[in-house]
Amino acid sequence: MPKKPGSIDWETVWKSLDWDDEQRQQAAERERLRQRARQYAAPPAAQAAAPEDSRPLLIFTLGRERYGVDVMLVRGVRTARTIARLPGAPSFYRGVTNVRGRIITVMDLRYFFDIPVEADAENPVELVITRSNDLEIGLLAHQINGISAVSPATIKPVEHMPYMAGMTADRVIVLQMAWLLADERLIVGSATSSGQ
């Protein structure tokens, strides 16, 4: 039967696609799998762009400030469900909490750094558990912002802030946990902690 001018010969189209050719289907499938493997093997864009000397920081917000802690010192992040107050402890010690059977001291950096706390401020409920100088402590946070790769060259020193490595261009205060956790005020009952 002759074809009308302008009509589509579907049989010819079907044959030209070679959908019935099993070898071509398998080759196309292998190529798709190779493309996916290359895609999954490539580092995420943020990591690929990070300089060689950059170090990852866990960024969290407490009050109006954002802080960064070296991720190698972070032992975990969790919600602080129950915090038991410690009578007679310095004000920056908010209490202790049970984390998988371990008692963790909970610290509020606002009180430690003498940052005014607004009366109607929402209580922080996130806990960043850090370990340095053989001391494990939980830092309170209002929000966990994520992990960011920061080059040490971009951290600018801040005067009169002995526990801070400095501040990044986007105003993240980079904590120097070894210095902070070596402070004598952290020892409850010491002459320097009793004044708090």
Overview of this protein structure:
The model has no long low-confidence stretch (mean pLDDT 80). The protein has 196 residues and is an alpha+beta fold. A hairpin with a 2-residue loop joins strand 4 and strand 5 (102-107). The chain has a 5-stranded mixed sheet. The chain is built from 5 helices and 10 strands. The chain folds into 2 domains: 10-41; 48-186, CheA-289, Domain 4 (OB fold (Dihydrolipoamide Acetyltransferase, E2P), Beta Barrel). It is elongated. Helix content is 21%, strand content 32%.
List keywords for this structure.
alpha+beta, 10 strands, 2 domains, 32% strand, 196 residues, 5-stranded mixed beta sheet, elongated, 5 helices, OB fold (Dihydrolipoamide Acetyltransferase, E2P)
The main sheet comes to: 5 strands, mixed
Number of strands: 10
**What percentage of residues falls in helices of 4 or more residues?**
10-25%
Shape: elongated
Count of domain modules: 2
Sheet/helix structural class: alpha+beta
At the third CATH level, what is the topology name of the largest domain? OB fold (Dihydrolipoamide Acetyltransferase, E2P)
Widest β-sheet, arrangement of strands: 8-1-2-10-9
| Low-pLDDT stretches | none
Q: Helix and strand succession?
A: HHHEEEEEHEEEEEH
What is the name of the CATH class of the largest domain?
Answer: Mainly Beta
